[in-house]
Amino acid sequence: MTAAAALPGIAPPRPIPINDRSSIVFVDKGRIDVLDGAFVVIDAGGVRTHIPVGGFACLMLEPGTRISHAAVALAARAGTLLVWVGEAGVRLYAAGQPGGARSDRLLWQARLALDDGARLKVVRKMYAIRFNEEPPERRSADQLRGIEGARVRKMYELLAQQHGVSWNRRAYDRQDWEAGDIPNRCLSAATACLHGLTEAGVLAAGYAPAIGFLHSGKPLSFVYDIADLFKFETVVPAAFRIAGKAAKGRLDLPLESAVRRECRDIFRRTGLLDRIIPAIEEVLEAGELERPVPPPDALPIAFEDKEPGGDAGHRG
Q: Shortest CA distance to 246 belongs to which of 156, 164, 174, 157?
């Protein structure tokens, strides 16, 4: 975002599409503000660090961070998701919106989730993408969830063996981060990175994070659905790799910092941002329900934007 965004009378630049951005950045123990038109973090000593807010999909704000009204407004205009998290992302307290959902996409998503047949088709497509094979026939969504859970537990065991990690089960206490063992802490930190990035993609594309298909009843159910499509090719192996290094005493960084850097590099290397929104469209299309058409009394488009900026869900 340039200084022009903060000057009166000058239109802000168009949002950068989500797939052209860097992934995420964590911010802790600083004050975030807009100074001289720039999005900056100011530490306790008054040192400013510039963050090119429009070039990131998601900023994760840890304890000890304060943010001004002007900074929140600039992040919203830039289409960058702000997520308030606990230390290392172990808890999610609140999240903003990078652009806002679109009613036509929300209605389509809701129709698919409420139609039992369409929902099962979407769940089957997610299974096929995740495991690169067709799911068993004549299985309900709940049965597929059980099959998937068993396969996931086995994959955790295999990765733990591969990296020389002692593994019991997936378990952690959200109220006591330090009580978790090293592999579980690594997994929590890694999945927090993936969920933040995925939520930014879901919102930027105009969908609702809470309307899930395999997952349900959580504020981020759809985020979990989409993140799971990529989890075992990205952040889960990274988490066990870092846990293995820690077990052998070969880790030069704090555990969570090493996980974040590893995830950041994987997101760049795999081009994950380029894949999230097309994956959303692919799984929803599998439900085979037509998208809703605008109602007759819907307001017409005031003017045609031949060069749209940002993504489908952006307000501006």
A: 164
